[in-house]
Design goal:
296 residues; mainly alpha; single chain; 3-stranded mixed sheet; 5 strands; two-stranded antiparallel ribbon; disordered N terminus; 6% strand; 10 helices; flat
C-alpha cells in the first residue's frame, strides 16, 4: 500500500471512515464514492497545508490578460482616432482641452468605458500576480494525494483528480517558506527517516496502515531549540576565544571565521532572504568588534 505523508499540526477527533460505526474498511474499498467522496478528501487535504494546492491555470490566465489588453488597446485606438478627427481644420470648433465643457458625448462615453475596462484589467493582473509568484508543489505532496486516491478507489471522479497531473502549474494555496535545514528534514521524512511521525487512527478518510503523518509542530519546536542553542554558542564562544588570543591579526582572523560561520548557519537554518542574512551578519560582526575594542 502507498504511504501518504503530511505535516500534521492538528488532531481532529473523528471516526476513521464514517460516522456510521457499521461502515468498515471493506465497505469503503467497495464504494469509496459513497463513503469517502469529497467529504473525506477535503478533510484529508485540510489536514496538512502542504496538501492544499490547486492549479494556477497559467496559460489560461495569460490568454485572458492578453485578450483584455487587446480589447483596451482597440478602445485606445478609437479614442486616438476620435481625437485626431476632432483636430482637423475642417472639423467643428470643439474645445479639446476640457472635461467640464466636453462637447463630444462620444469621446466622453468612450473614456468612461475605457476606465471601466482598465479597472477590470488592473484588478485581474493584481490578483494573478498574487498567485503567479508562488512556489511550485513538491512531488511528495502530489504523491500523497495520489495515495489517498489509491486507498479510496473511485472516491473522487477520475476526471476531477486530473489536476494532480498538472505538474508545474500547481501552486500551494497556503505557502510556507522553509529553511534548507527544514527541507532536508522533510526529505529525510519522505524516505522514512523522520523522528516525528505517527499513524493516525482518529482522522476521517485515512488508512492507518498506509498513512504516516509528520507532527509539524513538534518538528518546528525541536528545530527552533537547536537553532537557539547554536545561536548562543555563536555569541559566547568567540568572546572567550578572543579573550585568550594575542595580536590584532589573530583576533581579526577569529572574528572573520565566526562571521563566515554565522552567515552560513543563518542561511542554512532559517528562511531569511540574502539581504536579511547580511544585515544580521553585520550586526553580529559589530558586536564582536565592540568586544575586541573593549579588550584592547
Amino acid at each position: 500500500m502507498p504511504r501518504s505523508l503530511a505535516n500534521q499540526t492538528t488532531k481532529p477527533v473523528l471516526p476513521v471512515y464514517s460516522n456510521d460505526p457499521e461502515v468498515k474498511r471493506s465497505d469503503v474499498l467497495d464504494k469509496a464514492w459513497k463513503y469517502a467522496g469529497y467529504k473525506n478528501y477535503s478533510r484529508f487535504v485540510g489536514a496538512c497545508r502542504s496538501f492544499f494546492f490547486t492549479r494556477q491555470f497559467r496559460t489560461l490566465n495569460i490568454r485572458i490578460i492578453l485578450a483584455m489588453q487587446d480589447g483596451i488597446a482597440e478602445m485606445e485606438d478609437d479614442l486616438n482616432a476620435l481625437d485626431n478627427a476632432l483636430s482637423y481644420k475642417a472639423a467643428l470648433d470643439i474645445h479639446n482641452g476640457t472635461f467640464r465643457e466636453e462637447s463630444s458625448e462620444e469621446r466622453l462615453s468612450l473614456i468612461w468605458k475605457i476606465k471601466s475596462r482598465l479597472e477590470d484589467y488592473n484588478q485581474y493582473i493584481h490578483n494573478y500576480a498574487q498567485i503567479g509568484t508562488r512556489a511550485g508543489v513538491a512531488t511528495k505532496d502530489i504523491r500523497s494525494l495520489d495515495a489517498w486516491a489509491i486507498d479510496n478507489p473511485n472516491g473522487i471522479l477520475a476526471e476531477e483528480l486530473h489536476y494532480l497531473k498538472s505538474g508545474d502549474d500547481l501552486i500551494y494555496v497556503l505557502p510556507k517558506e522553509k529553511s534548507p535545514l527544514r527541507r532536508i528534514y522533510n526529505k529525510a521524512e519522505s524516505l522514512g527517516l523522520g523522528w516525528f511521525r505517527r499513524h493516525p487512527t482518529d482522522i476521517l478518510g485515512y488508512d492507518p496502515e498506509s498513512t504516516s503523518l509528520q507532527e509539524d509542530e513538534r518538528a518546528e519546536t525541536v528545530i527552533s531549540r537547536v537553532v537557539l542553542v547554536i545561536g548562543l554558542v555563536m555569541l559566547i564562544d568567540p568572546l572567550w576565544i578572543l579573550e585568550y588570543v594575542q595580536g590584532s591579526a589573530q583576533s581579526l582572523a577569529v572574528i572573520t571565521g565566526f562571521i563566515i560561520l554565522f552567515l552560513g548557519l543563518l542561511t542554512f537554518t532559517t528562511a531569511a532572504k540574502p539581504f536579511e542574512s547580511l544585515a544580521a551578519a553585520a550586526a553580529y560582526s559589530a558586536v564582536l568588534m565592540v568586544f575586541l575594542q573593549l579588550k584592547s
